[in-house]
């Protein structure tokens, strides 16, 4: 079996990769709808590029609303049976998905690096993390308990049980092309829902690989569907999902702008919508911090996936007494630890950005910061390796009026700002509406408790994902 049909070989290392990925067969460039591998009805396809070298990794169907509707109808039919499976049956299927994902973790990681560019070590990490959602929900599937509530009226009893809501429309981003799908699909299947997945244009192959695992795990036809599409067709597909009466809930992870649009499309139908949007994480280093530990933390949270994760550090705030020491040490560690290149090479820690537009955005943030008075310590421009690479960059003296503080940079750029007091740091940290994640370093126990409570960040993930797929039903039972 071969991984991809249409492949333009650019290098011998890619040829080796191709052979090594042989468990997965996206045969004849198809997508997975209602238990079958199908093409788009008009036969159109779009290419999936390797961001490291611009080569075409595969071509996949460019689906339209027509294929979307077919997937929704199939998913709705499958729901009629799937919702009546026992918790034990659903649990067993999810466990099989976990086992299969772990069994083929290296193949899945290579597919991920080929289409998303992240370093192979990070891809292996994502596959294990992604598998953990199948494992978690295989266990949670058996614990979807109800409640018995003491009734205020003698002749009545009140109890609540939970039912699956129906077809879940799932839209996922390119930066975690495996884990963002397993996190949603695991919860949906555990609850008894079926799903239609629209993966990002840049990374449909990881979604198709999950579909293949679903087939192997004997997930019934129609329970998991994948509708691949290019950016041209995506807006119509998104709108179609939100407006289709047989889609009960929308679960989206991606940018805030698109999240708002989906909420707007869904509002007239009063549809349940679960949004996991962008971040702008503060990383605070207080005077009492262990600076070396803080630098190690900044490296891990800033440069993961080349700075392209929603929880990546976006603004580094350092208190005045340790500011110079922190900047000096961060410079040294960035110079020593960051290796730019193709994520397939085992020593590489900073792979390409997802596409050339991403490089343009990162470059514009750096230029804006420099124009407004930031100091350039390292990097500062696109990397000579290729059009999708950016130099690991360190800017100091950043200010709140710079784009780098207002928007997600989504690249390997660390911007450091000096602050005087704890109150000032908290005010700056909370001056964003994207409170997805936050980090701080302090060795002062009272400060740790104070700041942890004052930072307006965090997400309620597992509960959020489970809740959206379950419809709690309340009953009043009259005793006669
Ligand atoms: P994006 O542009 O919003 O895309 C996300 C998904 O939405 C993709 O599948 C995309 O498809 C689709 N999409 C785009 N326009 C759409 C429309 N009009 N209707 C329906 N779907 C549409 O975001 P991204 O650039 O891929 O991902 C990065 C963003 O995701 C960042 O902001 C990051 O912080 C956020 N994120 C958040 C979390 C979290 O847990 N909160 C986790 C990971 C990422 P196409 O690719 O075909 O356009």
TrEMBL record:
<comment type="similarity">
    <text>Belongs to the aldehyde dehydrogenase family.</text>
</comment>
<feature type="domain" description="Aldehyde dehydrogenase">
    <location>
        <begin position="37"/>
        <end position="459"/>
    </location>
</feature>
<dbReference type="GO" id="GO:0005739">
    <property type="term" value="C:mitochondrion"/>
</dbReference>
<dbReference type="InterPro" id="IPR016163">
    <property type="entry name" value="Ald_DH_C"/>
</dbReference>
<dbReference type="InterPro" id="IPR029510">
    <property type="entry name" value="Ald_DH_CS_GLU"/>
</dbReference>
<dbReference type="InterPro" id="IPR016162">
    <property type="entry name" value="Ald_DH_N"/>
</dbReference>
<dbReference type="InterPro" id="IPR050740">
    <property type="entry name" value="Aldehyde_DH_Superfamily"/>
</dbReference>
<keyword id="KW-0560">Oxidoreductase</keyword>
<dbReference type="InterPro" id="IPR015590">
    <property type="entry name" value="Aldehyde_DH_dom"/>
</dbReference>
<comment type="pathway">
    <text>Amino-acid degradation; 4-aminobutanoate degradation.</text>
</comment>
<dbReference type="InterPro" id="IPR016160">
    <property type="entry name" value="Ald_DH_CS_CYS"/>
</dbReference>
<dbReference type="GO" id="GO:0004777">
    <property type="term" value="F:succinate-semialdehyde dehydrogenase (NAD+) activity"/>
</dbReference>
<dbReference type="InterPro" id="IPR016161">
    <property type="entry name" value="Ald_DH/histidinol_DH"/>
</dbReference>
<dbReference type="GO" id="GO:0009450">
    <property type="term" value="P:gamma-aminobutyric acid catabolic process"/>
</dbReference>
<dbReference type="Pfam" id="PF00171">
    <property type="entry name" value="Aldedh"/>
</dbReference>
<protein>
    <recommendedName>
        <fullName>Succinate-semialdehyde dehydrogenase, mitochondrial</fullName>
        <ecNumber>1.2.1.24</ecNumber>
    </recommendedName>
</protein>
<feature type="active site">
    <location>
        <position position="276"/>
    </location>
</feature>
């Amino acid at each position: 079996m071969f991984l991809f049909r249409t492949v333009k070989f650019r290098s011998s290392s890619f040829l080796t990769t191709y052979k090594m990925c042989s468990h997965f067969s996206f045969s004849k460039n198809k997508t997975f709808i209602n238990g079958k591998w199908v093409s788009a009805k008009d036969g159109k396809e779009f290419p999936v590029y390797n961001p490291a070298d611009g080569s075409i990794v595969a071509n996949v169907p460019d689906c339209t609303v027509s294929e979307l509707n077919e997937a929704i109808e199939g998913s709705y039919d499958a729901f009629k049976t799937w919702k009546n499976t026992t918790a034990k049956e659903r649990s067993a299927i999810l466990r099989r998905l976990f086992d299969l994902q772990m069994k083929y973790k290296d193949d899945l990681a290579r597919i991920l690096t080929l289409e998303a560019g992240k370093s192979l070590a990070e891809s292996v990490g994502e596959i294990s993390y992604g598998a953990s959602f199948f494992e978690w929900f295989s266990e949670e599937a058996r614990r979807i308990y109800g409640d018995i509530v003491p009734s205020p009226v003698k002749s009545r009893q009140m109890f609540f049980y939970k039912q699956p809501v129906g077809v879940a429309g799932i839209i996922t981003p390119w930066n975690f092309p495996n884990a963002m799908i397993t996190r949603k699909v695991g919860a949906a299947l555990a609850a008894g829902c079926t799903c239609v997945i629209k993966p990002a244009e840049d990374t449909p192959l990881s979604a198709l690989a999950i579909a293949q695992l679903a087939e192997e795990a004997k997930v019934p036809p129609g329970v998991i569907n994948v509708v691949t599409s290019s950016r041209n067709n995506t807006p119509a597909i998104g709108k179609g999902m939100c407006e289709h009466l047989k889609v009960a809930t929308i679960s989206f992870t991606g940018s805030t702008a698109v999240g708002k649009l989906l909420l707007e499309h869904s509002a007239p139908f009063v549809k349940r919508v679960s949004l996991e949007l962008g971040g702008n994480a503060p990383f605070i280093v207080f005077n009492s911090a262990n600076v070396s530990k803080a630098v190690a933390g900044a490296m891990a949270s800033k440069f993961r996936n080349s700075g392209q994760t929603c929880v990546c550090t976006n603004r580094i705030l350092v208190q005045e007494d340790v500011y110079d020491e922190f900047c000096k040490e961060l410079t040294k560690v960035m110079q020593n630890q960051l290796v730019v290149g193709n994520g397939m090479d085992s020593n590489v820690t900073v792979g390409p950005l997802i596409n050339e537009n991403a490089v343009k955005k990162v470059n514009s943030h750096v230029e804006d910061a420099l124009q407004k008075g930031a100091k350039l310590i390292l990097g500062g421009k696109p990397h000579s390796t290729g059009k999708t690479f950016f130099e690991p960059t360190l800017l100091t003296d950043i200010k709140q009026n710079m784009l780098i503080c207002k928007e997600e940079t989504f690249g390997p750029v660390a911007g450091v700002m000096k602050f005087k007091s704890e109150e000032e740091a908290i005010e700056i940290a909370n001056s964003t509406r994207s409170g997805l994640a936050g980090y701080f370093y302090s060795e002062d126990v009272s400060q740790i408790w104070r700041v942890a409570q004052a930072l307006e960040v965090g997400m309620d993930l597992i509960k959020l994902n489970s809740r959206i797929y379950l419809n709690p039903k309340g009953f009043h039972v009259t005793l006669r």
